[in-house]
Amino acid sequence: MAAQTTSRALTLCSRSPLRARELAKVVNSRMEFRSSLSNGSLASSSSREEAVIGVEEWQGWGTSSAIPAMVMEVVRNLKGLEEEMNSQMSFGGLGGKLKGSFKVQEDKKHRATYKALVDSEEKLQFFSARQIACRLLGSRGYLCQKCWLAKEDCMCSKVVPSMLWNGIRFWVYMHPKDFLRQNNTGKVLWQIFGLQAATLCLYGIHEHEEIMWDAFKLAGKSKVWWLYPNKNAPSKTVMDIVSCKSSGDLDLDQQTTNGKRPLHFILLDGTWNNSAAMFRRLKEQAELVWGEEGLPCISLAMLGASPMHRLRPQPSWDRTCTAAAATGLLAELHQLPEFSSFGLEEQAEAVEDGLETLLHALTARRLRMGRSITRKERHINNIC
Ligand SMILES: [Zn+2]
User: Fold this and answer.
1) Looking at 139, 173, 204, which one is the last position of a domain?
2) Which of 73, 110, 179, 320 falls 20 to 30 Å from 129 in CA-CA distance?
3) Residues near ligand 1 ion, CB 5 Å cutoff
């Protein structure tokens, strides 16, 4: 029974691109947020349009995708609830958390909507869209769109862009609760390498997952690898990447395609607990696309502790973080003769520098706000 549900959920994901839009309509009809909108005045209609996220604003946060239909629908419904209640939504703390009486009403509405959705895939897509929508609205005008730090802490001028070897493409598979988080490190990757070399894919956002899986299907299974630090999961090493390809295959790639068929590496970007669900979703989707074996998982021999660990005691990677995982991968690949001439070591250093810049910005912020720069002294002793 459980297997059937999962299978159905994943099939939904790979259906037509209209799927998310259809689902958005279902959610809208169940939320009934907009019941009062049909009576709305012209003035309120115009203010609603201004408040809806535009494509430029959406893409400014680090993606080249279209605006996800479900996210847009949730935003519209939130604005609709504002009009219904005749009060403005407000956000408190970090992470787009609603506050006050608006929060109480919205809580009731979104819980009812979630409950009414029968399909687990629909529930996930709604959960993700709502998280993203709240973060988008709550961060507007407050965070720098590029570095996701409060504007007064913006580190953009200190980030040095670098060119990632075109034989590699990273996918930052991010949990919605990590989206627009100041101490997220996945964002550093596209800040340095650009959106095409390090692409954001939000978990449970249909449009993003579809783009990523379309790229994987095009690339073929032998070109897609993922990094997951679970020591219990069967894993391979970077050596297996080479053995998976004949040397002729490598030569062919480099000579005739000039890296147009890159190796794809998926980095899970979320807290430890959330990563487990993301891991399962990727694995199930891979099994649907490529059969029982699924995706090969790489474990890194040299993965060190991230400097971010000093500030973030619960990272997605055990004692490290997403950007540090990318650094470890690039450094290990560089040591293989087949990959030694692509400047991967310098590219790993560029990410390390970016991480240090982020750490300094976050540390300066905590000091300015009178907070301790470390949550527990013992972490520093473990790392330094
Ligand atoms: Zn910035």
Assistant:
1) 139
2) 320
3) 144, 146-147, 154, 156
